[in-house]
Amino acid sequence: MELLCPAGSLASLKAAVDAGADAVYIGFKDDTNARHFAGLNFTDRQLEKGIRYLRQHNCRLHVAINTFAHPDGLERWKGSVDKAVSIGADVLIIADLAVLDYCAKTYPNIEIHASVQASVTNAAAINFFVDSFNVKRVVLPRVLSIHQVRQLARVSPVEIEVFAYGSLCIMAEGRCYLSSYLTGESPNTAGACSPAKFVEYKETDTGLETHLNGILIDKFTDDEKAGYPTLCKGRFDVGDERYHALEEPTSLNSMEMLPELMQMGISAIKIEGRQRSPAYVSQVTKSWRQAIDACKASPDSFKPSVETEQCLSNLSEGSQTTLGAYHKKWK
Amino acid sequence: MKYALGPILYYWPKQRVEDFYHMVAKSDVDIVYLGETVCSKRRELKIQDWLKIAQMLIGAGKKVCLSTMALLETPSDLAMLKRYCDQQDFMIEANDLSAIQLLSKQDLPFSVGPAVNCYNAQTLDLFLNKGMKRWTMPVELSHDWLRKIVNAPLLENKRTDFEVEVFAYGNMPLAYSARCFTARSENHSKDECKLCCIDYPQGRVVNSQDKNQLFVINGIQTMSGLKYNLINDLKSMHNTVDVVRLSPESEDTLKMLKNFRANETGQNPMPLDKEQECNGYWHKVEGMVQVEV
Predict the structure, then answer these.
(1) pLDDT at A38 (0 to 100)
(2) Is Metal-binding one of the keywords UniProt gives this record (chain A) (predicted)?
(3) Count of CB contacts below 8 A, A vs B?
């Protein structure tokens, strides 16, 4: 089972490698990747250093080119594919069918993974990507229950990768336009959800308000910790109730399911968080490295240690974690 | 220009659905999409019921297309999709790549729905090569984006091989989730939802704390809080759009259809409701915005 960790910067890449990642995933400094945030991603010089570091430590490189090519911009996406191949990426993670088509035809020997943004949730969709582009792996969106993941793993002709830890996106990724509805920019069109340039924090007499493009996402009292206004994680009114109508600010943590994931033959687990700090990447990677090794050694008795669980929950959004959709009783 | 009625996105009782389509049969709509696209637990109508309605509409001179689910997660979801794809009397609207896979393997023609990601001419061309006959663009794209796709040199000689459809009226489906938001709003788990969507024939409104109507929740689907309305943009569609889609909100949508037809060339514009309607996406800005046309 591959432990695949996020590297939004050179420092994070080194942190992941040092903490025991088997592979890291990165994106270029443009809108061809879905973490197109200011201050994130790699310049060419940083890339060169990063690759040298990965090679020295026998670690694989995945490059995410996982947004959708604009109608007059396919050349930019093709350029990212060319660049990823030329720097020696081991894997390209792609969402757009046009980009997949280009990559599969131009570089038939490069390993391609269907990105989570490609929204592959069933066996026929997996076959679509295998037949059309010869993908070697699909990354499942965080919308399936553990039972559904098992059913898919049983029939999939290719490797399955799942998200194990990190910010929780509750929508079928790649098919959520909520961000463009409120801001004009979505992960699909601009490479970011709830982009930072639209965020505003307003101190008021009744508490701290978070806004996204002028829309009130949440309001916090003095004793509450204000979170980033990701639009699906605010408190809204439905009927007479005010609550997190779509999602709580919480992180996914599937560590207790590790023996099951291993047993069903999941090829890789992905840690979300290219936007997080190197210290975060280091701690999370270390926790998962230990867990995977412990689980491999004795799958029957594996249980995450109290310290590990504590560490992961401290690192998570809102200091809360959930099994998310993996858990059947999830509301 | 042709007019289409999209699939009913909400969960209505069987009788209401049947009554609605009897009204549709008498309306001047050209194309009707039928079927459940949101949640496989909504079983007021079975496949036979939908086929019966389809036959009735064919008898009334309508073109009929069977719409399929956007988010398929289980082997039984897929088995149901196969049943739809195996019948050959009606064209299928694929709302997931799985449907395109099943249909193209059988060399059957299909329509690509708005829930399938298609952002460029190369993707459209790929669908054309697999048997696509009609394409409804993703709701978040603009007129400008659409023009760039259909005018791409790649499609120059293929423009008559397919129709272009635009979602032009109704609450827009914006996201599909693992979670059932309607069940959550009633404090039920997804597995024990009690089919409560049937109590909300137009979904449930989600307001911001300062009373801004942000979204409508409809089972696992999150929709726009405001109704998209491109009635005053029809004139700008003439060279790029073949079919205009209205999404059934209630029986009144058929009246709206009349208004659309009346304003096809722009001679009967209709002021949009300032509080309830939007048209931003078409004009290349935030979807929720209302741009003065």
Answers:
(1) 75
(2) yes
(3) 220
pLDDT at B202: 97
Q: Cα–chain-centroid distance for residue A214?
A: 27
Is residue A232 part of an annotated ligand binding site? yes
* Domains of chain A, earliest start first: 2-172+250-326 (3.20.20.70), 186-243 (no CATH)
CA distance linking residue B177 with residue A213, whole number of Å:
24
Q: How much is the pLDDT for A330? A: 61
Q: Which residues does chain A have with pLDDT short of 70?
A: 317-320, 328-331
Is the Cβ–Cβ distance between A236 and B209 less than 8 Å?
yes
Q: Tell me chain A's radius of gyration from C-alpha atoms.
A: 20
pLDDT at B11: 98
- Binary contact (B215, A241; C-beta < 8 A): no
* CA of residue A233 relative to chain centroid, distance: 17
Structure-token pair, residue B77: 């979801």
| A143·B73 Cβ contact <8 A | yes
Instruction: For residue A193, say whether it is annotated as part of any ligand binding site.
Output: yes
Domain boundaries in chain B? 2-172+227-276
Structure tokens at B200: 């909300």
Flag if B149 and A175 touch (Cβ within 8 Å): no
Which single residue is written with the structure tokens 């029957």? A300
The domain made up of B2-172+227-276 has a fold known as: TIM Barrel (3.20.20)
ipTM for the assembly: 0.97
CA B172 to chain centre: 8
Residue of A156, A175, A215, A322 to mutate when probing chain B, most B C-beta within 10 A: A175
For residues A99 and A94, give the distance between their C-alpha atoms in angstroms, rounded to a whole number: 7
What's the CA gap between B61 and B210, in Å, rounded? Answer: 48
d(CA B220, CA B226): 18
Q: How many residues does chain A have?
A: 331
Shortest Cα distance, chain B CAs vs residue A72, angstroms = 7
Q: Whose CA is closest to A230, among A272, A287, A262, A289? A: A272
pLDDT at position A235 is 96
**Residue A26 is encoded by which pair of tokens?**
């990165």
Q: How far is A270 from chain B (nearest CA, A)?
A: 19
Alpha-helical (H) ranges within B158-267 are: 181-185, 253-262
Do B212 and A142 lie within an 8 Å CB cutoff?
A: no
In chain B (293 residues long), the average pLDDT of successive 10-residue segments reads 98 98 98 97 97 98 98 95 95 98 97 97 98 98 97 95 98 94 92 94 98 97 98 96 98 97 96 97 98 93
Residue A112 has a pLDDT of 98
